[in-house]
Amino acid sequence: MKRSQFLLALASLSIVGGSFFLRRNISSTSEPKIITDTSRYKEIRNQLWSNNDQVKHFPNEIPTDAKNVHIAYSPKFLQGSSFFQVRLKQSPNKIKKLLSQYRNSAKHKYTGGNTNDHINQPNGVPTTFFYTSDSHTESFPATYEILVLNADNKGRPGFKWNHGDSYGVAINSSASEIIYWYEKW
Predict the structure, then answer these.
(1) pLDDT in tens, 143-157
(2) 123-129 long-range contacts, Cβ below 8 Å, gap at least 24?
């Protein structure tokens, strides 16, 4: 084999091998990982989230009396969406006070369902999916009251809600649970 043929074969093999490793590396990192480690809550809430106004309704720290705490955080990836959600159980009295507080300031109110259900209602707005559910369901059961504190349409004419954000709480009084959520797309 001549030297030029050997170099050509080596270059071809390098390109094929390099593209395999590059494709493998890209495909394994092409989807952002959802963070569910509750010990990272404070870091996400106070440092990683770029706009604190959108999570100001979240507790600064997980309350010491909270039980059954779950978080789901997906950072923005490329042009994709991001979300942050924390679910916790509190005393019935605390939940009752929070429900009263958030009902008074909510701009939109829904019972159960998910963002697709809510946006398709008359004057509906996007909300969230049930990311912190114990099962693989994406919808909130009818026992949850979804209270939208704000929804900002950043779409353009003909593409309403193509981009935007919304935040609020979902409260299940019978289970003494509250879910704080923020969603950006």
Answers:
(1) 999 999 999 998 888
(2) 125/151, 125/153, 125/161, 125/166, 126/151, 126/161, 126/164, 126/166, 126/183, 126/185, 127/151, 127/166, 127/168, 127/181, 127/183, 128/83, 128/85, 128/166, 128/170, 128/181, 128/183, 129/83
Instruction: Provide the whole-model pTM.
Output: 0.80
CA-CA distance, 144 to 89, in Å (whole number)? 13
Give, in order, the Cα–Cα distances in Å from 43 to each of 31, 38, 50, 154.
21, 10, 12, 27
Q: Pairing relation of β-strands 82-89 and 108-113?
A: unpaired
Neighbours of 69 (CB within 10 A): 14
Q: Could you identify the residue written with the tokens 């026992």?
A: 143
Whether the per-residue pLDDT at 109 is higher than 90: the answer is yes
